[in-house]
Amino acid sequence: MPLVSLNGVTKSYTTPDGGTVVAVDDVSLDIDAGDVYGIIGYSGAGKSTLVRLINALEPATSGSIVVDGVDITRLRERELRQVRSGIGMIFQQFNLFSSKNVKANIAYPLKLAGWSKADIDERVAELLAFVGLSDKAKAYPEQLSGGQKQRVGIARALATRPAILLADEATSALDPQTTHEVLSLLKRVNEEQGVTIVVITHEMDVIQTIATKVAVMENGRVIEKGDVFNVFSDPQNPASQRFVGTVIKGIPSPAERASLRERHRGRLVTFSFRDGDSSQAQVFVDLAQAGLDFELVYGGINDIRGRAFGHLTLAIRGTDAAIDAALASIRSHASVTEIDATDEEGAR
Fold first, then answer.
1. Rg of the chain's alpha carbons, rounded to an integer?
2. Do residue 105 and residue 171 come from a single domain?
3. Are residues 189 and 278 in the same domain?
4. What's the CATH number where 269 sits?
5. Are residue 17 and residue 141 in the same domain, yes or no?
6. CA 53, CA 41: separation in Å to the nearest integer?
7. pLDDT at residue 220 tops 60
8. How much is the average pLDDT of 22-47?
9. Do 258 and 292 share a domain, yes or no?
């Protein structure tokens, strides 16, 4: 049974003029224990509303939301508080108490849960060591960098040992290096503490770095979902293709192709690779053995959890007959897209 299961979930709001806005539209989604599940979409796609439904900060208009075997859409507020105790949350703007030091911020949910002072002190010390801030226990949020603030937020979210951690745009306010550090910490939370993480983001590289599964949202609906490698290497929906294109160069667009023609001689050909396909090195060997000159002009190879995929566009120079014969041979072990087979000037 999935740890979180949404079935036909819709959330709508009534506008001041009496209209209706549907923020989440008939979403069905299963999140298994141990997943790092990314939910990605442009602003207004409904992803942040969706995460507020999972921790019952917003009631669903229709559909069911089952968390750890309990349908939370059927619970009273008092019962929902118990469910929320098993769900931690971190935010884009950290949401720390500016008047409390780091230790007090982390201790806050433990005090609400009725822990003893000795147990609180032990748990806070454990969490400070885990996030690498043991020397900052007495510091206040204004004395911390953005990355340190987010690490405090993660420690606080983990204080009561939740099974689920919701991260809503948790790296959007951070620089690239700090983002990398926070994502590495979240990986440790998942791998070492066994916490299931739901990552809400508009940043595709965040999904590429940390997620195991992904759902793409647009206009309140999930338009594509699945294993991150499959969605990244072969996106089916145009919106998914746009997202993937922000971090992965695929086949050049017509405008990019025109620019490449101006700068490079030869027939433009794209070779696509997925995990298990012949390596790009073999393609280079095949072209060289055919006596062809070539240069890499566009694209790249990406890696997701040890699985490689990507697209390489080459400008190949030689006779048409030699190029045609080489491509026919390469097609037996690699995907080939001829995007400029008629550039006779470059082929000479």
1. 25
2. yes
3. no
4. 3.30.70.260
5. yes
6. 17
7. yes
8. 94
9. yes
Q: Do 159 and 263 fall into the same domain? A: no
pLDDT digits (tens, 9 = 90+) for 255-289: 888 999 999 999 999 998 887 666 778 899 999 99
Q: What is residue 71's DSSP assignment? A: E
Give the structural domain span for 317.
Answer: 254-347
Sign of CA pseudo-dihedral 32, 36, 38, 39: positive
Nearest to 313 by CA among 275, 276, 343: 343
Tell me the two tokens of residue 234.
């072969």
Q: Which of 195, 220, 245 is the last residue of a domain?
A: 245
- 241 and 263 housed in the same domain: no
Residues 232 and 277 in one domain: no
Please identify, among 216, 245, 274, the residue that sits at the C-terminal boundary of a domain: 245
pTM above 0.90, yes or no: no
Q: Tell me how far the alpha carbon of residue 261 is from its chain's centroid.
A: 34
The backbone torsions φ and ψ at residue 163, rounded to the nearest 5 degrees and listed phi first, read -85, -20
- Coil, helix or strand at residue 215: strand
> In a 10 Å sphere around its CB, with 0-12 CB exposed, 13-18 middle and 19+ buried, how is residue 200 labelled?
buried
Pair 2, 54: CB distance under 8 Å: no
Mean pLDDT of 214-242: 92
CA dihedral 275, 277, 281, 285 (to 10 degrees): 180
Q: How far apart are CA 169 and CA 249, in angstroms?
A: 24
Of the candidates 58, 50, 54, the one whose C-alpha atom is nearest the C-alpha of residue 70 is 54
Looking at the structure of the chain, the number of domains it has is 2
The side-by-side arrangement of strands in the sheet containing 221-227 is: 87-91, 164-168, 196-201, 36-40, 213-218, 221-227
CATH code of 202's domain? 3.40.50.300
